[in-house]
Specification:
Elements: H1 2-17, H2 26-29, H3 35-52, H4 58-78, H5 116-126
Helix pairs in contact: 1-3, 1-4, 3-4
Length: about 130
């Protein structure tokens, strides 16, 4: 049973450490997104390791400290996306004023389009802020 806790913990540690390697492969980047699930795995392994087994050897202490460090890192990574963290952007206020609205005109034009006047007319008709 102790080996199961070690395997689960090593999996959590690997998934926490892998994103530090700057590589675009999905195999390396896989630990970037399921942070909550990785945190659950790490906490499970840490509790299982501490409450089920006697921590006696140097390996046990280093492993438990590594698990704890990964738990702290995952919590710090998740915290900005929770309600516990202060907002960085103010909420939008509803208003009827046209100055508070942003209009964007997006259209697709072929490279060989020769109808310049129609495109200019479209832009003038809608008068967008951004084309």
């Amino acid at each position: 049973m102790k080996w199961l806790a070690i395997i689960i913990g090593v999996l959590g540690i690997i998934l926490t450490v892998k994103p530090f390697f700057r590589h675009a492969s999905w195999f390396v980047r896989i630990g970037d997104f399921p942070r909550l699930q990785i945190l659950i795995v790490l906490v499970f392994a840490l509790f299982l390791f501490f409450f089920r087994f006697d921590v006696q050897s140097v390996f046990d202490y280093v492993f438990a400290l590594s698990l704890f460090g990964c738990v702290v890192y995952q919590i710090v990574s998740i915290l900005p996306f929770t309600a516990l963290y202060p907002k960085e952007v103010q909420s939008a206020r509803a208003g009827d004023d046209d100055d508070t609205n942003l209009s964007i005109l997006i259209f697709n034009i072929l490279m060989d389009n020769q109808k310049y006047d129609e495109v200019i007319q479209l832009i003038e008709n809608y008068d967008p802020d951004i084309v």
